[in-house]
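User: Modeling request: complex.
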Amino acid sequence: MLALQILIDGFAISSLYALGAIGFTLIFGVSGVLNLSHGAIMVVAAVIAWWVGGFGSGPYLGALAGVAASLACAFFTYRVIVRPIQNSRAIPREEKEIFVLTATLLWGIMLQEAIAYFFTNNPKTVRPLVEGVVMILGVRTPLNEILTAVLSWLVIGLLYLLVNRTRTGKSLLAASMNPRGLTLLGFELSSIYVLVWAIYGVLAGIAGVLLGAFLGVSSDNAGVLTASAFSIVVLGGLGSVSGSLIAAYVVGYLETMTAYLVNPSIRTVPVLLLLVAVVYVRPQGLLGRR
Amino acid sequence: MTRVLLIVLPALLVMALLPLGVGGYILGLLTLGYYYAVFAMSWDLLFGFAGEVNFGPSFLIGVGAYTAALLNHYWLWPIPPCLVAGAFAAVVAGAVLAVPALRLTGPYFGLVTLVAVLLLQNVLVLFAGITGGEIGLDLPDVLAIDDTTNYYYALVFMTVSGAILFGLSRSPVGLILQASGQDAIEAAALGFNVAKHKLTAFCISAFFSGLSGAMLIFYLGTASVGTVVDIAVGVNVIIAAVLGGRRTIIGAAVGAIFLIGAGEILRPLGQLSTFVVSAVALVVILFFPGGFMGRLLQAGGRE
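Assistant: Request completed. Predicted assembly structure:
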């Protein structure tokens, strides 16, 4: 009974983690940027969905507004923060990475504080897209939890098709392997980066809205969300999408098991220990390439 | 070098004479700022010179602070041995963290240092019965009750630490560190032991962070997760160093004092104050990547 409960809850949480981390790893793979405002962008999506949905416009319009807000944030992050640093002549090349990290971190704090100012930092639960519960072999499961898992996998599947089956998607893949080669073939690298950030915005938005409906979100969660995406991505191997998927399930189940079997207050500790062990033994992560 | 002295000496003179002119409130604020300045300078030695991004300065600060706090609270050690023990514990913790972590580079090193902070925080909260957890551990001893005395302790401590760190950064060791930060392979090819120098830098950084952390809690009279371990503390240290101008040491101190002051001046804005401080820092990073001191110190110098 408890085992089944862990299996179901863990699956839903893990799918959500996978969706949240996949955009993060995509951006790193294609443009080499670690976006530390990730968690804050997810929070923005969830809170906007909650706010718009609260006007009686229904959960669907709210979810749409949330994803749109996340898309806008992603564009802003790229245009106003990441690209100027990448193009700056004043910053030496070997220090661009730390500047991007610091700047996105600051931007994340700004988003988080703005949300806390306008909407307070109380936890907010987005109205779920579907209501009701079903019994799966005697375990009470909200329909929303099933929808979360299904939607996450649907989006991941669509992303897979986009990257592997379409011409635009293949250019993304090529950019992650050899950006210079791609420019020599006549592709505009900057438009590929814009595309990647657009995909990222949609993914983070959907993940944020689903998270808001499933667990509820407060502006204080932004840091934790970024940290968990970061750890999943490093565990799976920076830039490896399939690695991130596996890592998301490892992290999701480890946390759920700790919460149910040991003590909910230490749910993140085993993950952190595992992360340290993996980074020492195999720094490239489960499926990463060096 | 003379340029630096020309800027620093008058500033120090003003700071030393300040207690004659201003009240206890501003002195208290600056005292806090000076301890933060040492955090930021130690961080700058590691990042600006060794090129390693330490996301967890508050791990080193926290280990130093809590070691001193526990010894003082439970065994009633007097303050000086507590400070020594705190600094020593931070060096040991830093070495344990750094020896394996320095095999890693870039984001991986950053992540390990970040995880170290999260683990320390979890441990402190988990053993709240001993450590006081989120509420904090009150200390039987304080450095001094008088504002002016506290202010001078902090000022002297910051000046001495700053002089050592700055001297180190301009010494041959500092140059080797800078070389290994910019191109580790070439530095190693020239015959320098990159790992040894980076480890030394980490230990020195840990020593001053831990000592400053221990001093800070004896000034505040209480050690809590929110003041010395929380990620937000580490983020502030990093912002201060980058804001003041990385690779200058002195800039880090200026950035830290500015940050503490700005946070206080903007307090009437309430929740928005953090927003404004972050926005200012972001603008400086985007438009003046050298920071406050970058242009001033490096205009005539090597770069």
